[in-house]
Write a structure and sequence with these properties.
Elements: E1 4-6, E2 11-14, E3 25-28, H1 31-39, H2 46-63, H3 69-84, H4 91-110, H5 114-140, E4 149-152, H6 167-176, E5 182-186, H7 193-204, E6 209-212, H8 217-222, E7 228-231, E8 235-237, E9 242-245, H9 248-257, E10 262-265, E11 271-272, H10 289-292, E12 293-294, E13 297-298, E14 311-314, E15 321-324, E16 327-329, H11 333-342
Parallel strand pairs: 4-5, 4-7, 5-6, 7-10, 8-11, 10-15
Antiparallel strand pairs: 1-2, 2-3, 8-9, 9-14, 12-13, 15-16
The chain binds ligand LNRAV4D5.
Ligand LNRAV4D5 binds near residues 44, 154 and 231.
């Protein structure tokens, strides 16, 4: 099952708001269509929204008159701003948009075919993400013992990326290595990415999975039923603080209290070295309807006040290791992140 498919004139996205009951693809012919799909979470997950935005810029490029190259560039910058305004937390979105604009500027200067070059850059982002996730799986497999019971939160799988997944990439690699692992998936209120997406995705691959509600995680850890936690990330600050789906911090505190290793899996495009710590990561707040209803069925009194932060920040002190496409970084994260993603030593 592909998360996204590129065609000559469109991007087709698996509509994740319809899973697990329906497998339908939404057709995006314009950058606006892609922006809408990101905003409404038909496509979601840090690397997936980055790759989708890249294809959104490719769609805009294909429709834009490229006779005046400076005007073309100005239009692409306008499209980039529109896509960047969809969701604030996942740095992959901004990383992908900036990479597409950098390529556009390079093509404008070089005189090369603008449209073809931009489409090829979007395809490169897509393909590289899948390769990075497989490398994450390769490195992450090292920390997964045989017969491990692994807890994960939200969905950091193929559905959250261009394919294979980050946290679920680690799980896929351990499963493929014959380690006989089992996964506990947190349902992940309010949008149930764990129940609707992770459980579905793992069952598609015949990976043993048990669904639990978010408030069961502590019970299982205290009973010794969890051997390690692996989650994804939306933005990793320079000191190793991690923004991820709301509830991740809670799981990390529970893991610390029960001496359960807590790993974060993410590609380099999720690391934001411009932010010294996680307090600076913008946290998206979403609508009240996501909290007071489930599939349109009310679960709270009408008119109740709602607070709906979509992410939280896990301080680096609670993280055992960060599994990246370039290896596993262990504390102190500052040096490791800087070395891996800039090549510089402290
Ligand atoms: C591969 S990391 C995906 C990351 O994004 C998810 O958030 P959302 O479903 O709101 O896009 C969640 O934080 C995942 O860990």
């Amino acid at each position: 099952m592909e998360t996204m498919c590129w065609y000559e004139d469109r991007l087709e996205l698996l509509d994740q708001t319809k899973l697990p009951h329906e497998v339908v693809y939404v057709k995006c012919f314009t950058a606006e269509d892609v922006a809408r799909a990101i905003k409404t979470m038909q496509v979601r997950g840090a690397p997936a929204i980055g790759a989708s935005a890249a294809f959104g810029m490719a769609l805009a490029a294909l429709k834009e008159d490229d006779a005046d190259r400076q005007k073309f560039l100005a239009r692409m910058e306008e499209v980039g701003r529109h896509l960047a305004a969809t969701r604030p937390t996942a740095v992959n979105l901004f990383w992908a948009i900036e990479r597409m604009l950098a390529k556009t500027r390079e093509l404008v200067q070089s005189g090369a075919d603008l449209k073809e070059g931009i489409v090829q850059e979007a395809l490169a982002i897509y393909r590289e993400d899948i390769e990075m996730n497989k490398r994450i799986g390769h490195y992450g497999n090292e920390v997964v013992p045989a017969k491990a019971n692994i807890l994960t939160h939200c969905n950091a799988g193929a559905l959250a990326t261009a394919g294979y997944g980050t946290a679920l990439g680690v799980i896929r690699a351990a499963h493929a290595a014959g380690k006989d692992i089992h996964v506990y998936a947190d349902e992940t209120r309010p949008l149930l990415q764990g129940a609707r997406l992770t459980a579905w995705e793992l069952m598609q691959d015949n990976i043993p999975v048990t669904l639990i509600t978010d408030n069961m995680a502590g019970y299982l850890m205290r009973k010794g039923m969890i051997d390690l936690v692996v989650v994804g990330a939306d933005r990793i600050a320079a000191n190793g603080d991690v923004a991820n789906k709301i509830g991740t911090y809670t799981v990390a505190v529970l893991a610390k209290a029960n001496r359960v290793p807590f790993y974060v899996a993410a590609p380099g495009s999720t690391v934001d070295l411009t932010l010294v710590n996680g307090d600076l990561i913008p946290i998206e707040e979403r609508g009240h309807e996501e909290v007071i209803s489930l599939y349109g069925q009310g679960v709270a009194p009408q008119g109740v006040k709602v607070f709906n932060p979509a992410f939280d920040v896990t301080p680096h002190e609670l993280i055992t290791g960060i599994i990246t496409d370039k290896g596993i970084i262990r504390p102190p994260f500052v040096e490791g992140l800087k070395k891996l993603f800039t090549g510089e030593e402290e």
